[in-house]
Amino acid sequence: MPIADFDYKAFATNLAQQAAVVVPPEISKPDKDYIVSLVLNFCNMSGEALYNDTEFKYTADSAYIITQFIGEWTFHKAIDLIHGKIPRQHRDKILQQIAFTVFEIAKQCVKRNMPQPDMIKIVEVHVQKAYQKALADLQKRGALTAEQAKTAAKMSNLDDMSRQQAGANASDTKLLKLVSFAMVLRSMPHDKAYSIIEKFDKEDADILNEYMKMDGLETKLDVSVVGKYLEEFKMNLPAPTKRSMPKVLNRLKKLVNNDSKKYVLRLLEHERPVIRNFVNPEDGVQVKLTPRIADVVCNHLEEKIKC
């Protein structure tokens, strides 16, 4: 009984067109045409068989899913055979076996009303078994050498595309983080913002500079995404240093000892009296500074003494 709203011919054409766009660039024109033609033909044949099936009533959704499985696995395994340098005369039979396997297994999954994620896993397992068996059979018949079969067996265009997609996703995430950070930098004084940008590598610094100058940047971003990354920045910032005056004074004591005292006093010759008195108390009475200022003075002396 025909399946309502299941236009398998248009769907097969669409899958073939999609395949043509994502064929790897190293694939030759004749092999690319071969792949696209197989996807179109196998999807048309499987779609027609489902459309005219009298034993089970498929919905349009389930028929589209089965047909898509046929197209996707035909595409991936055809590329694996080409990358594996399997001669053209052996490819057709292997791909026919794989398409038949996908068709039968996917139909069983649909009839058992399996969730689509489970269907994907089960179909993949059976595809890989059929692929490996076909290569092993060719090797047994002497049509392939052991090395040819082994090389082809290792190929996985599906994994290659997944890695590429993961890389693209990682790049997108990095860009969003840089753009979000550019928003933070826009709120800072320019000299401070650009001193921070200088610490990035050139490629990232160029991106930050570009988005720092963009008009209306805040209106071009998804607020929830930016908020997520700004929260990450906040969580990864080092915790504020708790300054303790006894600790600062202990550092100062180590800096200003009998050996270094004359040198330190020369460094402070042009400093304000309150700073000089803090480092070298007159009559043993030390000027009181806030822990923050005292810490800055110690840091300054440490840097100078190291030089």
Question: Could you characterize what this model shows?
Answer:
- Helix 1 (8-22) packs parallel to helix 3, helix 2 runs antiparallel to helix 3 (60-83) and helix 11 (245-255) runs parallel beside helix 14.
- The protein has helices spanning 8-22, 29-51, 60-83, 88-111, 116-140, 146-154, 157-186, 190-197, 202-212, 223-236, 245-255, 261-267, 273-279, 291-306.
- By secondary structure, it is mostly helical.
- Helix content is 73%, strand content 0%.
- It starts with 7 loop residues before the first helix and ends with a helix.
- The protein is built from 14 helices and no strands.
- The chain is elongated and about 105 Å long.
Please supply descriptive tags for the structure shown above.
307 residues; mainly alpha
Instruction: Name the overall outline.
Output: elongated
Q: What is the end-to-end distance?
A: 89 Å
Strand content: under 5%
Distinct helical segment count: 14
Task: Please state the CA-atom Rg, rounded to the nearest Å.
Answer: 35 Å
Structural category is mainly alpha
Query: What is the averaged pLDDT score?
Result: 82
Number of strands: 0
Please summarize the sheet with the most strands.
none
Low-confidence stretches: none
Topology as H/E string?
HHHHHHHHHHHHHH
Instruction: Give the proportion of residues in helices.
Output: over 70%
